Every structure is written in C-alpha cells, then in structure tokens.
Amino acid sequence: MSERQTAASIGGRLRQLRTGSGRSLRSVAEAVGISSSALSQIETGIMQPSVNRLVELVSVLGVPVSAIFEDSDVLRPVSVDGGEVSEPIPGVVVQGGQAEMTLGQGVIYRRLTPTRIDGVDFFETVYPPLTTSSVDGAMLVHEGYEVGRVLSGTLLFEFSEGSVQLGPGEALSFWATRPHRVVNESPDVSACAIWLTLRNWREGADREDTEVG
Questions:
Q1: Arithmetic mean of pLDDT, 154-176
Q2: How many Å apart are CA 129 and CA 73, to the nearest integer?
C-alpha cells in the first residue's frame, strides 16, 4: 500500500474521531495551532502528520494514539491465517501480525499491545536517518508519564533545558508535560525505540517525579 493510501487511512480515522466527538474542523485546528486548511489536508490524506502533530490531535480529541489503529483496514493487525485479534482462552488476547502506521518523514509507529489498554500506550517507533518527531522544530507537551528505551541506533531527546543522547539499551523517563522532541541525527542509520506512555498519571498528584537526568 502506498504512503498516500496510508496517509488517507490515518486522516480518515482522525476525521471519524473528530466528528464523533462533536468537534468542528476549525475548533480542533485552533486548539493545535494550525489552519483549518492544514487540518483538512491531514484528514483527506494530502498531508501526513508528524509524530508531534498526531499526538497533539488525539490529545485534543481526548483519545489515545492507539485509537488511530482502530476501525481502519490499513492499520488492523493481519495474521498469516487471515485472522486479526482473537481470544483463544478466556481472558487471553492474541494478536496475529503487527499494527503500524507511517507518519511524516517516514517515522513508523507500531502498536505493541493486541488491543487498547485504558490509560496506557505501548509502541515501537522507527526514525529513519535525519528525521524528527516535529518537522517544524516545535516541542510536544501532553499529559502523562513517558518511559522510553532505545533498541538500535542513536536518538537525541531535546528538552527546553537541554538534550540527552541515548544509544542501544539506554532508557529515560520524564513527565510528558515537559516540552520534548525526538531527533535522529544520523545521516545513514535508522533508530528504533520502544515507548510506554502512562496517560492517567498526573504530575504533582500522589506520585513522585522519578525522571532520569
């Protein structure tokens, strides 16, 4: 399937989520700081959202990133026997194949859970050479607590106060309310990381901030 078709599927799902929430194109666009025209281009598949933009959009709509994987043929997990998600034993959910989507600059998101888990997003991300989570340099801020571990390559994690570079096997965690951006500075090597986002955590509530660095 082409990148254009994949972008159209992601955009179509975003449109379903927006209309289902009762939000207008203009109100969502204003909430994330883009024009209605730009959001329309994302929803129709003309423009692929960056990682930052996708997270901003689903946050405004009040749904997790994993919601993008649902009700969209191109994003459904497909197994070798034609199945999708099954429950062979009561309470045991099995996923055949892998659900993934390609965002701006070719950044790949793969959901690592077979079904949506309330309050949790668990993903694998692949950043091609010289790609970032935000093409315009903007940093992302959203609710929850982030935990990430680099599996291969090297990633630079930029914050307002500075940056942290991690290689294979290294990990970090931080409150997602801290402005952040992910960058692969390598001109020829892709970087892969796994991410756990705990969306229901609130900074300063009943948990101590245990972030690294």
A1: 96
A2: 29
